Protein backbone atom coordinates (compact mmCIF):
# COMPACT_ATOMS: atom_id res chain seq x y z
CA UNK A 1 0.00 0.00 0.00
CA UNK A 2 1.36 3.40 -0.96
CA UNK A 3 0.65 6.06 1.60
CA UNK A 4 1.69 8.96 -0.56
CA UNK A 5 0.47 9.24 -4.14
CA UNK A 6 3.21 8.85 -6.68
CA UNK A 7 3.79 12.36 -7.92
CA UNK A 8 5.53 12.94 -11.20
CA UNK A 9 6.46 16.56 -11.64
CA UNK A 10 7.49 17.24 -15.18
CA UNK A 11 9.34 20.26 -16.33
CA UNK A 12 10.71 23.39 -14.89
CA UNK A 13 7.34 25.10 -15.47
CA UNK A 14 5.72 22.99 -12.77
CA UNK A 15 8.44 23.80 -10.24
CA UNK A 16 8.32 27.51 -11.05
CA UNK A 17 4.51 27.68 -10.83
CA UNK A 18 4.53 25.78 -7.53
CA UNK A 19 7.23 28.13 -6.21
CA UNK A 20 5.20 31.20 -7.28
CA UNK A 21 2.05 29.89 -5.58
CA UNK A 22 3.94 28.79 -2.45
CA UNK A 23 5.86 32.09 -2.25
CA UNK A 24 2.66 34.07 -2.72
CA UNK A 25 0.95 32.13 0.06
CA UNK A 26 3.87 32.79 2.41
CA UNK A 27 3.68 36.50 1.60
CA UNK A 28 -0.04 36.43 2.41
CA UNK A 29 0.67 34.58 5.67
CA UNK A 30 3.16 37.29 6.59
CA UNK A 31 0.55 39.98 5.87
CA UNK A 32 -2.00 38.03 7.91
CA UNK A 33 0.37 37.94 10.88
CA UNK A 34 0.66 41.71 10.60
CA UNK A 35 -3.18 41.77 10.73
CA UNK A 36 -3.39 43.36 7.28
CA UNK A 37 -6.48 42.60 5.22
CA UNK A 38 -6.26 40.46 2.08
CA UNK A 39 -8.46 41.53 -0.84
CA UNK A 40 -10.86 38.77 -1.93
CA UNK A 41 -9.61 39.19 -5.52
CA UNK A 42 -6.17 38.03 -4.39
CA UNK A 43 -7.80 34.76 -3.28
CA UNK A 44 -9.50 34.40 -6.69
CA UNK A 45 -6.16 35.01 -8.40
CA UNK A 46 -4.51 32.25 -6.38
CA UNK A 47 -7.33 29.80 -7.15
CA UNK A 48 -6.96 30.65 -10.85
CA UNK A 49 -3.19 30.09 -10.70
CA UNK A 50 -3.56 26.82 -8.82
CA UNK A 51 -5.95 25.53 -11.50
CA UNK A 52 -4.18 26.98 -14.54
CA UNK A 53 -0.61 25.98 -13.65
CA UNK A 54 -1.23 22.17 -13.50
CA UNK A 55 -3.12 22.40 -16.79
CA UNK A 56 -0.21 24.09 -18.53
CA UNK A 57 2.45 22.02 -16.74
CA UNK A 58 0.69 18.74 -15.90
CA UNK A 59 0.99 17.18 -12.47
CA UNK A 60 -0.31 13.62 -12.39
CA UNK A 61 -1.34 11.43 -9.48
CA UNK A 62 -1.87 7.72 -9.21
CA UNK A 63 -5.36 6.85 -8.07
CA UNK A 64 -6.64 3.72 -6.39
CA UNK A 65 -10.31 2.81 -6.66
CA UNK A 66 -12.23 3.01 -3.40
CA UNK A 67 -14.72 0.16 -2.69
CA UNK A 68 -17.68 2.35 -3.64
CA UNK A 69 -16.21 2.91 -7.14
CA UNK A 70 -14.68 -0.54 -7.43
CA UNK A 71 -18.14 -2.06 -6.92
CA UNK A 72 -19.30 -0.58 -10.26
CA UNK A 73 -16.15 -1.73 -12.03
CA UNK A 74 -16.43 -5.24 -10.61
CA UNK A 75 -20.11 -5.49 -11.55
CA UNK A 76 -19.46 -4.59 -15.21
CA UNK A 77 -16.41 -6.84 -15.20
CA UNK A 78 -18.32 -9.82 -13.79
CA UNK A 79 -21.32 -9.63 -16.14
CA UNK A 80 -21.14 -12.15 -18.98
CA UNK A 81 -20.33 -10.86 -22.46
CA UNK A 82 -23.36 -9.46 -24.27
CA UNK A 83 -25.14 -8.33 -21.10
CA UNK A 84 -27.60 -5.44 -21.59
CA UNK A 85 -26.52 -2.26 -19.82
CA UNK A 86 -28.33 1.05 -19.97
CA UNK A 87 -26.28 4.24 -19.64
CA UNK A 88 -28.25 7.42 -19.08
CA UNK A 89 -26.64 10.82 -19.70
CA UNK A 90 -28.75 12.86 -17.28
CA UNK A 91 -26.76 16.06 -17.30
CA UNK A 92 -26.40 19.36 -19.12
CA UNK A 93 -23.35 21.29 -20.37
CA UNK A 94 -23.03 23.08 -17.02
CA UNK A 95 -22.31 19.76 -15.26
CA UNK A 96 -20.44 18.15 -18.15
CA UNK A 97 -16.81 18.83 -17.14
CA UNK A 98 -17.43 16.94 -13.92
CA UNK A 99 -19.66 14.04 -14.95
CA UNK A 100 -19.02 13.45 -18.66
CA UNK A 101 -15.71 11.66 -17.90
CA UNK A 102 -17.70 9.15 -15.79
CA UNK A 103 -20.13 8.40 -18.60
CA UNK A 104 -17.28 8.04 -21.08
CA UNK A 105 -15.11 5.75 -18.99
CA UNK A 106 -18.03 3.41 -18.24
CA UNK A 107 -18.91 3.39 -21.95
CA UNK A 108 -15.31 2.39 -22.74
CA UNK A 109 -15.46 -0.37 -20.14
CA UNK A 110 -18.77 -1.73 -21.44
CA UNK A 111 -17.49 -1.71 -25.00
CA UNK A 112 -14.23 -3.45 -24.21
CA UNK A 113 -16.22 -6.10 -22.32
CA UNK A 114 -18.48 -6.55 -25.39
CA UNK A 115 -21.67 -5.69 -23.54
CA UNK A 116 -24.73 -4.41 -25.43
CA UNK A 117 -25.34 -0.83 -24.39
CA UNK A 118 -28.46 1.33 -24.58
CA UNK A 119 -27.78 5.06 -24.36
CA UNK A 120 -30.45 7.56 -23.38
CA UNK A 121 -30.89 10.86 -21.56
CA UNK A 122 -33.51 12.58 -19.43
CA UNK A 123 -32.04 16.06 -19.97
CA UNK A 124 -32.86 17.76 -23.27
CA UNK A 125 -29.41 19.33 -23.35
CA UNK A 126 -27.81 15.95 -22.63
CA UNK A 127 -28.71 14.70 -26.11
CA UNK A 128 -25.95 16.68 -27.83
CA UNK A 129 -23.39 15.63 -25.21
CA UNK A 130 -24.42 12.00 -25.58
CA UNK A 131 -24.08 12.11 -29.37
CA UNK A 132 -20.72 13.89 -29.08
CA UNK A 133 -19.32 11.32 -26.61
CA UNK A 134 -20.66 8.38 -28.57
CA UNK A 135 -19.30 9.59 -31.92
CA UNK A 136 -15.90 10.25 -30.41
CA UNK A 137 -15.55 6.97 -28.50
CA UNK A 138 -16.95 4.72 -31.22
CA UNK A 139 -15.06 6.27 -34.13
CA UNK A 140 -11.71 6.59 -32.35
CA UNK A 141 -11.60 3.57 -30.04
CA UNK A 142 -14.20 1.04 -31.20
CA UNK A 143 -14.66 1.44 -34.97
CA UNK A 144 -15.74 -2.22 -35.24
CA UNK A 145 -18.80 -1.71 -32.99
CA UNK A 146 -22.05 -1.35 -34.90
CA UNK A 147 -24.96 0.95 -34.14
CA UNK A 148 -28.04 -1.15 -33.39
CA UNK A 149 -26.07 -4.36 -32.99
CA UNK A 150 -23.59 -3.51 -30.21
CA UNK A 151 -25.13 -0.30 -28.95
CA UNK A 152 -28.11 1.93 -29.56
CA UNK A 153 -28.78 5.59 -28.93
CA UNK A 154 -32.45 6.16 -28.07
CA UNK A 155 -31.85 9.79 -27.12
CA UNK A 156 -33.94 12.17 -25.09
CA UNK A 157 -37.56 11.77 -24.10
CA UNK A 158 -39.48 14.51 -22.28
CA UNK A 159 -41.30 13.58 -19.09
CA UNK A 160 -38.64 13.35 -16.37
CA UNK A 161 -39.70 10.74 -13.76
CA UNK A 162 -42.73 9.96 -15.93
CA UNK A 163 -40.40 8.39 -18.51
CA UNK A 164 -38.87 6.14 -15.84
CA UNK A 165 -42.28 5.26 -14.50
CA UNK A 166 -43.23 3.94 -17.96
CA UNK A 167 -40.00 2.16 -18.98
CA UNK A 168 -40.01 0.15 -15.77
CA UNK A 169 -43.00 -1.70 -17.24
CA UNK A 170 -42.82 -1.01 -21.00
CA UNK A 171 -39.77 0.30 -22.82
CA UNK A 172 -41.30 0.45 -26.30
CA UNK A 173 -44.18 2.63 -25.15
CA UNK A 174 -41.76 5.44 -24.36
CA UNK A 175 -39.13 4.77 -27.00
CA UNK A 176 -40.83 3.39 -30.14
CA UNK A 177 -37.70 4.21 -32.18
CA UNK A 178 -34.06 5.13 -31.69
CA UNK A 179 -32.65 8.58 -32.61
CA UNK A 180 -32.32 7.48 -36.24
CA UNK A 181 -36.03 6.52 -36.37
CA UNK A 182 -35.21 2.80 -36.51
CA UNK A 183 -38.24 0.93 -35.04
CA UNK A 184 -37.77 -0.68 -31.61
CA UNK A 185 -38.51 -4.22 -32.83
CA UNK A 186 -35.80 -4.16 -35.49
CA UNK A 187 -33.02 -3.08 -33.11
CA UNK A 188 -30.85 -6.07 -32.19
CA UNK A 189 -29.83 -4.65 -28.78
CA UNK A 190 -33.50 -4.62 -27.69
CA UNK A 191 -34.08 -8.31 -28.50
CA UNK A 192 -35.59 -9.85 -25.36
CA UNK A 193 -36.01 -6.53 -23.58
CA UNK A 194 -39.58 -5.55 -22.81
CA UNK A 195 -38.97 -3.30 -19.84
CA UNK A 196 -36.16 -1.91 -17.71
CA UNK A 197 -36.58 -5.00 -15.50
CA UNK A 198 -34.93 -7.06 -18.25
CA UNK A 199 -31.73 -5.02 -18.08
CA UNK A 200 -28.66 -6.44 -16.37
CA UNK A 201 -27.61 -3.07 -15.06
CA UNK A 202 -28.35 0.64 -15.25
CA UNK A 203 -25.62 3.25 -14.98
CA UNK A 204 -26.92 6.77 -14.67
CA UNK A 205 -24.79 9.89 -14.67
CA UNK A 206 -26.12 13.18 -13.42
CA UNK A 207 -26.33 15.74 -10.70
CA UNK A 208 -29.71 17.34 -11.07
CA UNK A 209 -33.33 16.27 -11.22
CA UNK A 210 -34.18 13.82 -12.69
CA UNK A 211 -30.98 12.03 -11.84
CA UNK A 212 -29.58 9.10 -9.91
CA UNK A 213 -32.11 9.40 -7.09
CA UNK A 214 -35.05 9.22 -9.51
CA UNK A 215 -33.56 6.11 -11.14
CA UNK A 216 -33.39 4.47 -7.71
CA UNK A 217 -36.92 5.54 -6.80
CA UNK A 218 -38.67 4.74 -10.08
CA UNK A 219 -36.62 1.92 -11.62
CA UNK A 220 -34.11 0.41 -9.19
CA UNK A 221 -36.32 -0.24 -6.19
CA UNK A 222 -39.69 -1.05 -7.81
CA UNK A 223 -38.16 -3.07 -10.67
CA UNK A 224 -35.33 -4.65 -8.65
CA UNK A 225 -32.90 -3.45 -11.32
CA UNK A 226 -29.24 -3.05 -10.27
CA UNK A 227 -28.54 0.69 -10.51
CA UNK A 228 -25.16 2.40 -10.21
CA UNK A 229 -24.61 6.12 -10.37
CA UNK A 230 -22.07 8.72 -11.26
CA UNK A 231 -22.96 12.00 -9.60
CA UNK A 232 -21.77 15.58 -9.47
CA UNK A 233 -19.82 16.14 -6.26
CA UNK A 234 -22.44 18.53 -4.88
CA UNK A 235 -25.04 15.74 -4.59
CA UNK A 236 -22.68 12.85 -3.79
CA UNK A 237 -23.20 12.99 0.02
CA UNK A 238 -26.95 12.68 -0.52
CA UNK A 239 -26.46 9.49 -2.54
CA UNK A 240 -24.27 7.61 -0.04
CA UNK A 241 -27.22 6.42 2.11
CA UNK A 242 -28.40 4.38 -0.92
CA UNK A 243 -25.12 2.44 -1.05
CA UNK A 244 -24.79 -0.56 -1.13
CA UNK A 245 -28.39 -1.78 -0.94
CA UNK A 246 -30.15 0.51 -3.40
CA UNK A 247 -27.14 1.69 -5.40
CA UNK A 248 -24.49 -0.89 -6.17
CA UNK A 249 -21.82 1.79 -6.47
CA UNK A 250 -21.27 5.53 -6.66
CA UNK A 251 -18.77 7.70 -8.47
CA UNK A 252 -18.71 10.99 -6.60
CA UNK A 253 -17.36 13.95 -8.53
CA UNK A 254 -14.26 13.98 -10.67
CA UNK A 255 -12.37 11.95 -8.04
CA UNK A 256 -14.73 9.03 -8.71
CA UNK A 257 -14.10 9.30 -12.44
CA UNK A 258 -10.33 9.40 -11.89
CA UNK A 259 -10.48 6.27 -9.72
CA UNK A 260 -12.48 4.42 -12.37
CA UNK A 261 -10.12 5.52 -15.15
CA UNK A 262 -7.19 4.32 -13.10
CA UNK A 263 -8.84 0.93 -12.52
CA UNK A 264 -9.66 0.59 -16.23
CA UNK A 265 -6.07 1.37 -17.22
CA UNK A 266 -4.79 -1.16 -14.69
CA UNK A 267 -7.03 -3.91 -16.08
CA UNK A 268 -6.86 -2.93 -19.76
CA UNK A 269 -3.45 -1.43 -20.62
CA UNK A 270 -4.68 -0.49 -24.13
CA UNK A 271 -6.32 2.55 -22.50
CA UNK A 272 -2.95 3.90 -21.30
CA UNK A 273 -2.68 6.14 -24.37
CA UNK A 274 -6.32 7.23 -24.32
CA UNK A 275 -7.12 10.61 -22.81
CA UNK A 276 -8.30 10.29 -19.20
CA UNK A 277 -9.95 13.61 -18.28
CA UNK A 278 -10.62 12.50 -14.70
CA UNK A 279 -6.98 11.76 -13.98
CA UNK A 280 -5.92 14.89 -15.85
CA UNK A 281 -8.18 17.04 -13.66
CA UNK A 282 -6.84 15.66 -10.40
CA UNK A 283 -3.69 17.83 -10.65
CA UNK A 284 -5.61 21.14 -10.63
CA UNK A 285 -8.03 19.68 -8.07
CA UNK A 286 -5.26 18.78 -5.62
CA UNK A 287 -3.40 22.06 -5.95
CA UNK A 288 -6.59 24.13 -5.66
CA UNK A 289 -7.63 22.20 -2.55
CA UNK A 290 -4.21 22.76 -0.98
CA UNK A 291 -4.48 26.50 -1.68
CA UNK A 292 -7.99 26.62 -0.19
CA UNK A 293 -6.78 24.76 2.91
CA UNK A 294 -3.86 27.18 3.19
CA UNK A 295 -6.29 30.11 3.09
CA UNK A 296 -8.44 28.50 5.80
CA UNK A 297 -5.35 28.07 8.01
CA UNK A 298 -4.22 31.63 7.30
CA UNK A 299 -7.67 33.00 8.06
CA UNK A 300 -7.65 31.24 11.41
CA UNK A 301 -4.13 32.43 12.24
CA UNK A 302 -5.13 36.00 11.41
CA UNK A 303 -8.22 35.62 13.61
CA UNK A 304 -6.21 34.27 16.57
CA UNK A 305 -3.56 36.99 16.23
CA UNK A 306 -6.23 39.67 16.04
CA UNK A 307 -8.04 38.30 19.10
CA UNK A 308 -4.82 38.17 21.10
CA UNK A 309 -4.00 41.78 20.16
CA UNK A 310 -7.50 42.93 21.10
CA UNK A 311 -7.11 41.14 24.46
CA UNK A 312 -3.76 42.87 25.11
CA UNK A 313 -5.26 46.27 24.24
CA UNK A 314 -8.13 45.71 26.67
CA UNK A 315 -5.71 44.76 29.48
CA UNK A 316 -3.73 47.97 28.86
CA UNK B 1 -21.45 57.12 -22.11
CA UNK B 2 -18.24 58.04 -20.29
CA UNK B 3 -15.01 58.42 -22.25
CA UNK B 4 -13.34 55.60 -20.27
CA UNK B 5 -16.27 53.28 -21.05
CA UNK B 6 -15.95 54.01 -24.77
CA UNK B 7 -12.22 53.24 -24.66
CA UNK B 8 -12.76 49.94 -22.78
CA UNK B 9 -15.55 48.90 -25.16
CA UNK B 10 -13.34 49.73 -28.18
CA UNK B 11 -10.43 47.73 -26.77
CA UNK B 12 -12.65 44.70 -26.08
CA UNK B 13 -14.15 44.88 -29.59
CA UNK B 14 -10.69 45.17 -31.13
CA UNK B 15 -9.42 42.20 -29.11
CA UNK B 16 -12.49 40.22 -30.16
CA UNK B 17 -11.83 40.94 -33.84
CA UNK B 18 -8.13 40.10 -33.53
CA UNK B 19 -8.99 36.84 -31.75
CA UNK B 20 -11.60 35.96 -34.40
CA UNK B 21 -9.20 36.56 -37.30
CA UNK B 22 -6.37 34.72 -35.54
CA UNK B 23 -8.61 31.73 -34.71
CA UNK B 24 -9.87 31.62 -38.31
CA UNK B 25 -6.30 31.54 -39.60
CA UNK B 26 -5.48 28.66 -37.19
CA UNK B 27 -8.59 26.69 -38.16
CA UNK B 28 -7.98 27.43 -41.86
CA UNK B 29 -4.86 25.27 -41.70
CA UNK B 30 -7.09 22.21 -41.20
CA UNK B 31 -8.19 20.98 -44.67
CA UNK B 32 -11.22 19.19 -43.16
CA UNK B 33 -12.62 22.40 -41.66
CA UNK B 34 -15.50 23.59 -43.84
CA UNK B 35 -16.89 26.55 -41.90
CA UNK B 36 -13.75 28.35 -40.78
CA UNK B 37 -15.18 31.81 -40.04
CA UNK B 38 -18.34 30.49 -38.38
CA UNK B 39 -16.43 28.04 -36.19
CA UNK B 40 -13.84 30.69 -35.28
CA UNK B 41 -16.60 33.13 -34.34
CA UNK B 42 -18.29 30.48 -32.15
CA UNK B 43 -15.12 29.72 -30.21
CA UNK B 44 -14.16 33.40 -29.83
CA UNK B 45 -17.66 34.35 -28.70
CA UNK B 46 -17.74 31.46 -26.19
CA UNK B 47 -14.37 32.60 -24.83
CA UNK B 48 -15.63 36.19 -24.61
CA UNK B 49 -18.73 35.08 -22.70
CA UNK B 50 -16.63 32.94 -20.32
CA UNK B 51 -14.34 35.88 -19.56
CA UNK B 52 -17.34 38.21 -19.26
CA UNK B 53 -18.91 35.97 -16.61
CA UNK B 54 -15.60 35.55 -14.75
CA UNK B 55 -15.09 39.34 -14.80
CA UNK B 56 -17.76 39.57 -12.09
CA UNK B 57 -15.12 38.30 -9.66
CA UNK B 58 -13.35 41.63 -10.11
CA UNK B 59 -16.52 43.68 -9.90
CA UNK B 60 -19.94 44.06 -11.51
CA UNK B 61 -19.66 45.43 -15.05
CA UNK B 62 -21.65 45.77 -18.32
CA UNK B 63 -19.90 42.78 -19.96
CA UNK B 64 -21.04 40.51 -17.13
CA UNK B 65 -24.57 41.92 -17.37
CA UNK B 66 -24.61 41.33 -21.14
CA UNK B 67 -23.49 37.67 -20.73
CA UNK B 68 -25.98 37.09 -17.91
CA UNK B 69 -28.94 38.52 -19.83
CA UNK B 70 -27.96 36.67 -22.97
CA UNK B 71 -27.79 33.40 -21.03
CA UNK B 72 -31.23 33.90 -19.48
CA UNK B 73 -32.78 34.89 -22.81
CA UNK B 74 -31.24 32.05 -24.78
CA UNK B 75 -32.18 29.53 -22.05
CA UNK B 76 -35.82 30.65 -22.05
CA UNK B 77 -36.02 30.45 -25.84
CA UNK B 78 -34.25 27.09 -25.90
CA UNK B 79 -36.60 25.51 -23.36
CA UNK B 80 -39.65 26.84 -25.18
CA UNK B 81 -38.50 25.32 -28.46
CA UNK B 82 -37.47 22.08 -26.73
CA UNK B 83 -40.85 21.92 -24.98
CA UNK B 84 -42.66 22.16 -28.29
CA UNK B 85 -40.52 19.65 -30.20
CA UNK B 86 -39.99 17.09 -27.45
CA UNK B 87 -43.34 17.17 -25.65
CA UNK B 88 -45.91 18.25 -28.24
CA UNK B 89 -44.28 16.89 -31.39
CA UNK B 90 -42.35 14.07 -29.74
CA UNK B 91 -44.90 12.72 -27.26
CA UNK B 92 -48.35 13.94 -28.35
CA UNK B 93 -48.50 14.13 -32.16
CA UNK B 94 -47.53 10.47 -32.89
CA UNK B 95 -50.34 9.32 -30.57
CA UNK B 96 -53.21 11.45 -31.85
CA UNK B 97 -52.86 12.34 -35.52
CA UNK B 98 -51.45 10.58 -38.58
CA UNK B 99 -51.56 13.68 -40.77
CA UNK B 100 -49.77 15.83 -38.16
CA UNK B 101 -47.19 13.06 -37.74
CA UNK B 102 -46.51 13.20 -41.49
CA UNK B 103 -46.30 16.99 -41.37
CA UNK B 104 -43.75 16.95 -38.54
CA UNK B 105 -41.99 13.88 -39.98
CA UNK B 106 -42.33 11.79 -36.80
CA UNK B 107 -43.26 8.09 -36.97
CA UNK B 108 -47.00 7.61 -36.37
CA UNK B 109 -47.85 4.72 -34.03
CA UNK B 110 -51.42 3.60 -34.80
CA UNK B 111 -51.40 1.13 -31.89
CA UNK B 112 -50.61 3.91 -29.43
CA UNK B 113 -53.47 6.17 -30.52
CA UNK B 114 -55.35 7.32 -27.46
CA UNK B 115 -57.62 10.35 -27.42
CA UNK B 116 -57.20 10.70 -23.66
CA UNK B 117 -54.02 12.57 -24.58
CA UNK B 118 -56.27 15.54 -25.42
CA UNK B 119 -56.94 15.96 -21.69
CA UNK B 120 -53.37 17.15 -20.96
CA UNK B 121 -53.61 19.33 -24.08
CA UNK B 122 -56.68 21.06 -22.65
CA UNK B 123 -55.01 21.35 -19.24
CA UNK B 124 -51.95 22.84 -20.94
CA UNK B 125 -54.09 25.46 -22.68
CA UNK B 126 -55.82 26.25 -19.38
CA UNK B 127 -52.38 26.92 -17.84
CA UNK B 128 -51.94 29.78 -20.31
CA UNK B 129 -54.89 31.55 -18.71
CA UNK B 130 -52.35 32.67 -16.14
CA UNK B 131 -51.57 35.45 -18.59
CA UNK B 132 -55.14 36.75 -18.40
CA UNK B 133 -56.08 39.19 -15.64
CA UNK B 134 -59.70 38.05 -15.43
CA UNK B 135 -59.31 34.34 -16.21
CA UNK B 136 -56.12 33.78 -14.18
CA UNK B 137 -57.99 31.62 -11.65
CA UNK B 138 -58.63 28.99 -14.37
CA UNK B 139 -54.90 28.18 -14.45
CA UNK B 140 -55.17 26.92 -10.84
CA UNK B 141 -57.07 23.85 -12.01
CA UNK B 142 -54.29 22.36 -14.17
CA UNK B 143 -51.77 23.46 -11.55
CA UNK B 144 -53.74 21.57 -8.90
CA UNK B 145 -53.75 18.54 -11.20
CA UNK B 146 -49.95 18.74 -11.64
CA UNK B 147 -49.32 19.12 -7.90
CA UNK B 148 -51.75 16.32 -7.01
CA UNK B 149 -50.40 13.89 -9.60
CA UNK B 150 -46.78 14.59 -8.67
CA UNK B 151 -47.50 14.22 -4.96
CA UNK B 152 -49.41 10.97 -5.51
CA UNK B 153 -46.73 9.51 -7.78
CA UNK B 154 -43.85 10.50 -5.53
CA UNK B 155 -45.53 9.54 -2.26
CA UNK B 156 -45.37 5.79 -2.96
CA UNK B 157 -41.84 5.92 -4.38
CA UNK B 158 -40.44 8.01 -1.54
CA UNK B 159 -42.22 5.93 1.09
CA UNK B 160 -40.67 2.80 -0.31
CA UNK B 161 -37.15 3.99 -1.19
CA UNK B 162 -36.50 6.80 1.26
CA UNK B 163 -38.34 5.41 4.25
CA UNK B 164 -38.84 1.62 4.28
CA UNK B 165 -35.63 0.75 2.42
CA UNK B 166 -33.61 3.31 4.38
CA UNK B 167 -34.89 2.04 7.73
CA UNK B 168 -34.07 -1.48 6.59
CA UNK B 169 -30.56 -0.35 5.52
CA UNK B 170 -29.93 1.00 9.02
CA UNK B 171 -30.33 -2.48 10.54
CA UNK B 172 -26.73 -3.54 10.02
CA UNK B 173 -24.75 -6.22 11.90
CA UNK B 174 -22.63 -4.62 14.62
CA UNK B 175 -20.15 -7.50 14.41
CA UNK B 176 -19.56 -8.16 10.72
CA UNK B 177 -18.85 -11.78 9.78
CA UNK B 178 -18.10 -12.64 13.43
CA UNK B 179 -16.40 -16.03 13.85
CA UNK B 180 -14.85 -15.53 17.26
CA UNK B 181 -12.18 -13.27 18.75
CA UNK B 182 -9.29 -15.47 17.61
CA UNK B 183 -10.40 -15.32 13.99
CA UNK B 184 -10.86 -11.54 14.29
CA UNK B 185 -7.31 -11.01 15.64
CA UNK B 186 -5.77 -13.45 13.15
CA UNK B 187 -7.33 -11.60 10.17
CA UNK B 188 -6.90 -8.08 11.52
CA UNK B 189 -6.07 -5.54 8.80
CA UNK B 190 -6.83 -1.93 7.92
CA UNK B 191 -8.30 -2.68 4.49
CA UNK B 192 -11.51 -0.80 3.65
CA UNK B 193 -13.20 -4.12 2.94
CA UNK B 194 -11.75 -5.85 6.02
CA UNK B 195 -13.75 -7.04 9.03
CA UNK B 196 -12.51 -4.24 11.30
CA UNK B 197 -13.33 -1.42 8.87
CA UNK B 198 -16.78 -2.84 8.09
CA UNK B 199 -17.56 -3.34 11.78
CA UNK B 200 -16.44 0.20 12.66
CA UNK B 201 -18.44 1.52 9.68
CA UNK B 202 -21.60 -0.20 10.88
CA UNK B 203 -21.12 1.17 14.40
CA UNK B 204 -20.76 4.67 12.92
CA UNK B 205 -24.03 4.17 11.00
CA UNK B 206 -25.83 2.87 14.09
CA UNK B 207 -24.55 5.54 16.49
CA UNK B 208 -24.81 8.28 13.87
CA UNK B 209 -28.47 7.56 13.14
CA UNK B 210 -29.35 7.08 16.80
CA UNK B 211 -27.58 10.22 18.06
CA UNK B 212 -28.79 12.25 15.06
CA UNK B 213 -32.38 11.32 15.94
CA UNK B 214 -31.77 12.13 19.61
CA UNK B 215 -30.65 15.66 18.61
CA UNK B 216 -34.02 16.24 16.90
CA UNK B 217 -36.04 14.86 19.84
CA UNK B 218 -37.21 17.95 21.70
CA UNK B 219 -39.74 16.39 24.11
CA UNK B 220 -37.01 15.71 26.69
CA UNK B 221 -34.39 18.09 28.04
CA UNK B 222 -30.93 17.48 26.52
CA UNK B 223 -29.08 16.73 29.78
CA UNK B 224 -27.07 13.77 31.13
CA UNK B 225 -26.65 10.76 28.83
CA UNK B 226 -29.41 12.09 26.60
CA UNK B 227 -27.51 15.40 26.28
CA UNK B 228 -24.25 13.58 25.50
CA UNK B 229 -25.97 11.59 22.74
CA UNK B 230 -27.45 14.84 21.43
CA UNK B 231 -23.98 16.43 21.33
CA UNK B 232 -22.65 13.42 19.40
CA UNK B 233 -25.63 13.89 17.07
CA UNK B 234 -24.71 17.50 16.37
CA UNK B 235 -21.11 16.43 15.67
CA UNK B 236 -22.41 13.87 13.19
CA UNK B 237 -24.46 16.58 11.50
CA UNK B 238 -21.48 18.94 11.39
CA UNK B 239 -19.24 16.27 9.87
CA UNK B 240 -21.95 15.60 7.25
CA UNK B 241 -22.18 19.29 6.40
CA UNK B 242 -18.37 19.42 6.24
CA UNK B 243 -18.32 16.50 3.80
CA UNK B 244 -20.98 18.25 1.70
CA UNK B 245 -18.93 21.45 1.73
CA UNK B 246 -15.78 19.55 0.69
CA UNK B 247 -17.61 17.85 -2.16
CA UNK B 248 -19.11 21.19 -3.24
CA UNK B 249 -15.64 22.75 -3.40
CA UNK B 250 -14.47 19.80 -5.50
CA UNK B 251 -17.46 20.21 -7.82
CA UNK B 252 -16.91 23.93 -8.29
CA UNK B 253 -13.19 23.47 -8.94
CA UNK B 254 -14.05 20.83 -11.57
CA UNK B 255 -16.29 23.32 -13.35
CA UNK B 256 -13.54 25.95 -13.21
CA UNK B 257 -11.07 23.41 -14.64
CA UNK B 258 -13.58 22.75 -17.45
CA UNK B 259 -13.79 26.44 -18.34
CA UNK B 260 -10.05 27.08 -18.12
CA UNK B 261 -9.42 23.96 -20.20
CA UNK B 262 -11.76 25.41 -22.84
CA UNK B 263 -9.87 28.73 -22.81
CA UNK B 264 -6.43 27.11 -22.98
CA UNK B 265 -7.29 24.29 -25.38
CA UNK B 266 -10.09 25.34 -27.73
CA UNK B 267 -9.46 29.08 -27.77
CA UNK B 268 -5.76 29.74 -27.22
CA UNK B 269 -4.45 26.31 -28.25
CA UNK B 270 -1.93 26.30 -25.39
CA UNK B 271 -2.60 22.66 -24.46
CA UNK B 272 -3.32 19.70 -26.69
What does this 3D model show about the protein?
- The complex is a heterodimer of chains A (316) and B (272).
- In chain A, helix 5 (126-140) links the parallel strand 4 (116-121) and strand 5.
- In chain A, helix 1 runs antiparallel to helix 2, helix 2 (40-56) runs antiparallel to helix 11 and helix 4 (96-112) crosses helix 5.
- Chain A has 2 domains: 8-60 and 277-315; 67-267, Rossmann fold (3-Layer(aba) Sandwich), CATH 3.40.50.
- Chain A is an alpha/beta fold and 316 residues long.
- In chain A, 52% of the residues lie in helices and 12% in strands.
- With 272 residues, chain B is mainly α.
- Chain B has helices at 3-28, 36-54, 62-96, 98-104, 118-127, 140-170, 181-186, 195-215, 224-267.
- Chain B starts with a helix and ends in a 5-residue tail after the last helix.
- The interface between A and B is large, with 53 and 47 residues.
Furnish the topology, listing elements before pairings:
The complex is a heterodimer of chains A (316) and B (272).
Chain A (H helix, E strand, L loop, with lengths): L7 E2 L1 H23 L6 H17 L2 E2 L6 H12 L5 E7 L5 H17 L3 E6 L4 H15 L10 E6 L4 H7 L3 H4 L26 E6 L5 H12 L3 E5 L4 H4 L10 E3 H15 L9 H39 L1
Parallel strand pairs in A: 3-4, 3-6, 4-5, 6-7, 7-8
Antiparallel strand pairs in A: 1-2
Helix pairs in contact in A: 1-2, 1-11, 2-11, 4-5, 4-10, 6-8, 10-11
Chain B lengths: L2 H26 L7 H19 L7 H35 L1 H7 L13 H10 L12 H31 L10 H6 L8 H21 L8 H44 L5
- Counting DSSP E segments of at least 2 residues, the number of strands of chain B comes to 0
N- and C-termini, Cα separation of chain A: 56 Å
Question: Largest inter-chain interface?
Answer: A-B, 53 and 47 residues
Q: Write out the strand line-up for the largest beta sheet of chain A, numbering strands in chain order.
A: 5-4-3-6-7-8
Largest sheet of chain B: none
Amino acid sequence: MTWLPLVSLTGVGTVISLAVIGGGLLWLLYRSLLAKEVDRRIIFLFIFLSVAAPLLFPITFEEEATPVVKAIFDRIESLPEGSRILISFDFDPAMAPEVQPMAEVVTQHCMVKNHKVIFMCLFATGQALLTQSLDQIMSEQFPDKLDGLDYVNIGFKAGNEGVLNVIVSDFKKMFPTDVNAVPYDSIEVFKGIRSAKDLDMVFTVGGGKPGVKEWVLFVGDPGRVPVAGGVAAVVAPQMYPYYPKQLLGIMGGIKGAAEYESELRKEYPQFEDVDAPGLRMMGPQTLAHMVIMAFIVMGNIAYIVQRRRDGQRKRL
Amino acid sequence: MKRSSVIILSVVLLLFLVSWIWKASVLGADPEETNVWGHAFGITFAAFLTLAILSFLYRDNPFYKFAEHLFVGVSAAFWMVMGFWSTIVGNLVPRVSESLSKFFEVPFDKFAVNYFYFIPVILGILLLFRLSRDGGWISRWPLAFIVGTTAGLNFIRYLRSDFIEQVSSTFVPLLVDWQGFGHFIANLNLSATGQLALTVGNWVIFLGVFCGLVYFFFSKEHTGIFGAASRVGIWILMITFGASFGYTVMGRISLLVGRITFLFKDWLGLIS
